[in-house]
Hints:
The chain starts with 12 loop residues before the first strand and ends with a strand. By secondary structure, it is an alpha+beta fold. The protein is built from nine helices and 17 strands. 26% of the residues lie in helices and 31% in strands. Mean pLDDT is 90; it is low at 1-8. Helix 3 (118-131) crosses helix 4 (148-161). Strand 9 and strand 10 form a beta hairpin. The strands form four sheets. The chain has a six-stranded mixed β-sheet, sandwiched between helices. A four-stranded antiparallel β-sheet has the order 2-1-4-5, covered by helices on one side.
Amino acid sequence: MKDEATRTTDRPVILSLAGLSKSFGETQAVKPISLDIPEGEFLTIVGPSGSGKSTMVRLLAGLEEPSGGALYLRGKDITAIPANQRPTAMVFQSLALFDHRSVGQNIEFAMKMKGVAPAKRRARALDLLKLVRLPETYYSRAVTQCSGGERQRVALARAFASDPEILFFDEPLSAIDYRLRKTLEVELKELHQRTGRTFVYITHSLEEAMVMSDRIAIMKDGDIIQIGTPSEIYAQPVNRFVARFMGEVNIVAADKSATFPALSRNAKGQYAVLRPEALHPEEGTLRARLTVAQRLMLGSRTQLHLTGDAGESFVSEIAGSGDAFLPGTEHEFGFSPENVVWVDA
Length: 345
């Protein structure tokens, strides 16, 4: 990514990356990246497997030594400072809890290593249980007796025990079932708002990123190729990769659309990107007849897979059950030019 320090607020910068990079032999896992993270932000870094996002968070947390560049905390160079000497904490995908210890002992572990008195440790642990919405009675409970969601909360409480300025998360919800994950996404966002701490979150799930983040950074091949608010990235992807990564999308080569030739006449880029909800049977000035190939029920909305002239494929999402759009039937669909995003790659 080009040197870029776009921020969504006027809050002071807490963490600055200045050309930070990491190579493993001949492989450049993270290309030089410059970025400012404001205090109190919830920044999520997303990308497919191998994009460099996990290496990135390990660099930020001090668990990997960078090959180049520098990292600054409130203007102070912390590049060479070990992870255990930084005012930060990490929540791992595996959670890394001590199964032979109680919930309270897990939460207190870092404080015990620092020589904090037992009474102070216990008081702090009980406060943190309240923070993550676990009953005080869990203090003495064995970690092995906790459910998956409870273990997540214990790991969060342990991370907060050292009073970190920044919390890093490496895909902590990836091994949890869908329903519990949705609950914890909301709780994480609420926890961020209640504490005001800076969260840097790594995930491969776009859905997680959209729900929780102030900004999303999308990584590919070791570089951040776009960063912005969820709505900015959804509405204005910089290229086809980002558009596809953000979910179902119609991408039409501007000079090759037999179904919507107006895309060729009005081309402002090589490809037209159109979100499914913008292709609608009752709206839009650019219209064409399309055949329903498949109808998928998505709860309160319906996704329609459509076929146009010369076999072109499109996808539309409409409210309700879409009972009239049976496979094999033909219907007119349209969109408005202002809903098209043009990209060149």
